[in-house]
Amino acid sequence: MNIKSSLIILICASFPFLGTSQIRFSETIQTSKTATDTEASLFFVDFWATWCGPCVYASEYLGVLQKQYPDNFYVVSLSEENPDIVRKFLKNNPTELAVAIDYNGETFRANNTRVLPYGLLINANGTVLWKGSPTDFKQADLVQFLRQHTKTKAVDKVLKVQKIKQKVFKADYLPTQDFEIKLLKGESYETLIRNSIGDYTHYKGNLKSIIAREYNVLLSQVNLDASLDKTYEVYIKIGQNATFDILDELKLDLFHTQSEGDVIMIDISNINYWDTKQIDWGNDTAAYLIDDSQIQADNVTFNDVMFQLASVLNLPLVVKGGEPDTNLHDWQIHHRFYNLMQSNMLDTYGISVSKETGNFKIYTIRKKTP
Fold first, then answer.
1. Are strands 98-101 and 72-79 parallel, antiparallel or unpaired?
2. Which residues fall within 8 angstroms of residue 343, CB to CB, at 6 or more apart?
3. What pTM was estimated for this model as a whole?
4. Element counts in the chain: helices (H) and strands (E)
5. For the chain: N or C, fewer Cβ within 10 A?
6. Contact indicator for 39, 155 with CB cutoff of 8 Å
7. What gap in Å lies between CA 100 and CA 46, rounded to an integer?
8. Angle of the 53-68 helix axis to the 139-148 helix axis, nearest 10
9. How far apart are the C-alpha atoms of 198 and 238, rounded to whole Å?
10. What is the per-residue pLDDT across 328-367, written as a single tens digit (0 to 9) for each?
């Protein structure tokens, strides 16, 4: 089965721009070639990136909606990438949608946009009417909102271009060692940034989040004094675990203890892995697409996808019945309804899932004793 559809994490967001009825951009790459009016009653902001294959699919879907409803509906695709990269991408992948740049990531941060693709719909007053997966925004939804919201406003009054001092963009830094770590002074991240750069896993975020991700456990399973939980940038050669390199560099010790509580027990005694041909989003795309009902993953390990499952369920996962392999696989896991998740995991992968009281690890990080 070759799955082409794109799904999204639905994220709760805060919207500080509502008082001004504006979504602020830094630069317009192109205006809409399809929308017929300079005014609209509904505005859709499509958060995307050139490296995100599912984002491109979502933008194409929105392009169809824009063509069907050129009056009073205005879609803009927003990227926080280097504008030169976006222009180069559009030469080979043209779109008729409006395209804009968010130089400083202001609009991305304001809407807590952590996973792409993502979208939100606002009316002329700046009120958020809808948010989530662009491909989950259906024609019927648009028709209903158009009937309910008839007040129009000039596009440039709602989607406001605010000129700022142009950034000097630098090429991605490539480390020279298998492991590098740098303290980021004056920077903070609400959520951990994790991506791949060349042959490296790249992190930006607080230490607790980095350690939790390296161990594939919940943040609640890591104890760390706030004074030690500083923000770092870390490069780790893909295939190696650098947790102890991090701890040694920062002169910290890690201990683990057992705690008892509610867990999701994962029995892999009869596991039947998918290969990597079930889902194919192409190269340089997001590894995960997660919405409020399922997780899809293209070419990821068992431990990685189980971390995502633990995160959406907000419960520790305990694996029994053997050691999972470390190979890459494709995954499609339902998580919204527990009974459906059980049957899905068992029927698809031979994995038995049960919710029970059990023991799970708690990791505590402290300064090394002199």
1. parallel
2. none
3. 0.60
4. 9, 20
5. C
6. yes
7. 10
8. 50
9. 9
10. 999 999 998 999 999 999 999 999 999 999 999 999 999 9
